[in-house]
């Protein structure tokens, strides 16, 4: 267990004056965290770039909205199911080199099809790309969640603030703005 000093936030192992305690890897059985992930609606994964294999937390099928046998267990299968519009953002992840600007951390939102014929879902993916000593990506670890409802609400708000719901015509302010931009 690592404890931090409440005055300056510095770590002190075993300090009696510390008020905050943080668990270390040695303190935690990560299987105990599975219920917290489920409650948060997040699935975690580890993607080995060399083998292209993805290992998922047990709740991945629920988060991705598909049966366990349809969960993408390789990066290639995952890429096939990402919308063409978002493939470039996902592909950027693999083109990173250990730049100090990104330090391998990423935050992506992409449209995902769990399986042919199933409804598309919006996925938020936050994680870390890990690099070897030569700066080449070797593993990606992250957590993702379904943000489809949020995206649907955002689209509805844009529509309601742009168009009159009763007539389907642009709101006056948007109409005037479009006229000014056209001239």
Overview features:
3-stranded antiparallel sheet, alpha+beta, Beta-Lactamase, elongated, 5-stranded antiparallel sheet
Description:
With 183 residues, this protein is α+β, with helices and mostly antiparallel strands. It has three domains: 1-28, no CATH class; 41-146, Beta-Lactamase; 149-183, no CATH class. The protein contains six helices and eight strands, in the order E-E-E-H-E-E-H-H-H-E-E-E-H-H. The protein has helices at residues 34-40, 60-64, 75-81, 87-95, 148-162, 172-182; strands spanning 2-4, 11-12, 20-22, 42-48, 53-56, 105-112, 121-131, 137-146. The strands form two sheets. A five-stranded antiparallel β-sheet has the order 5-4-8-7-6. The chain has a three-stranded antiparallel β-sheet with strand order 2-1-3, with no helix packed on it. Strand 6 and strand 7 form a beta hairpin. The longest helix has 15 residues, at 148-162. Residues 1-13 and 96-100 have low confidence and may be disordered.
């Amino acid at each position: 267990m690592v404890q931090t000093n409440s005055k300056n936030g510095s770590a002190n192992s075993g300090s009696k004056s510390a008020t905050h305690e943080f668990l270390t890897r040695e303190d935690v059985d990560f299987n105990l965290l599975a219920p917290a992930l489920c409650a948060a609606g997040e699935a975690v994964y580890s993607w080995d770039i060399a083998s292209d294999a993805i290992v998922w937390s047990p709740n991945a099928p629920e988060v991705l909205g598909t049966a366990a046998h349809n969960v993408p267990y390789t990066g290639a299968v995952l890429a096939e199911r990402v919308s063409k519009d978002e493939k470039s953002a996902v592909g950027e992840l693999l083109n990173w080199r250990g730049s100090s600007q990104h330090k391998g951390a990423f935050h992506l939102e992409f449209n995902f099809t769990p399986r042919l014929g199933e409804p598309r879902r919006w996925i938020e993916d936050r994680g870390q790309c890990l690099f070897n000593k030569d700066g080449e990506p070797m593993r990606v670890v992250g957590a993702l969640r379904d943000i489809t409802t949020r995206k649907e609400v955002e689209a509805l708000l844009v529509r309601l603030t742009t168009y009159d719901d009763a007539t389907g015509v642009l709101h006056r302010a948007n109409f005037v703005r479009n006229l000014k931009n056209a001239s």
